[in-house]
């Protein structure tokens, strides 16, 4: 699995108990062997992309506050693709 997607899966695991769409996105990551984050983002439904955008904003803010630059960089790779 692409390292950006690995960080994303880990971040999503923080939200799957409270959000069914996060669970669905997490399941996609688990069940599909995406070659890269671009392939993953293209496979998202519109509502999944919207929720993932919100989750990533939260997770990126958290990573910045913790000064975890590696996590910021990895998650930002997926976040930027959602904005295109």
Automatic annotation (TrEMBL):
One matching Pfam family:
CsgA
Question: Which InterPro entries would you find in this protein's record?
Answer: CsgA
Q: Out of the domains of life, which is the source?
A: Bacteria
Name assigned to this protein: Sporulation protein
């Amino acid at each position: 699995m692409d390292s950006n997607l690995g960080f994303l899966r880990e971040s999503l695991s923080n939200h799957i108990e409270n959000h069914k769409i996060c669970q669905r996105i997490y399941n996609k990551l688990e069940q599909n062997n995406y070659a890269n984050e671009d392939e993953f983002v293209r496979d998202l439904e519109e509502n999944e992309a919207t929720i993932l955008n919100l989750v990533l904003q939260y997770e990126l803010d958290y990573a910045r506050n913790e000064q975890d630059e590696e996590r910021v960089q990895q998650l930002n790779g997926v976040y930027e693709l959602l904005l295109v």
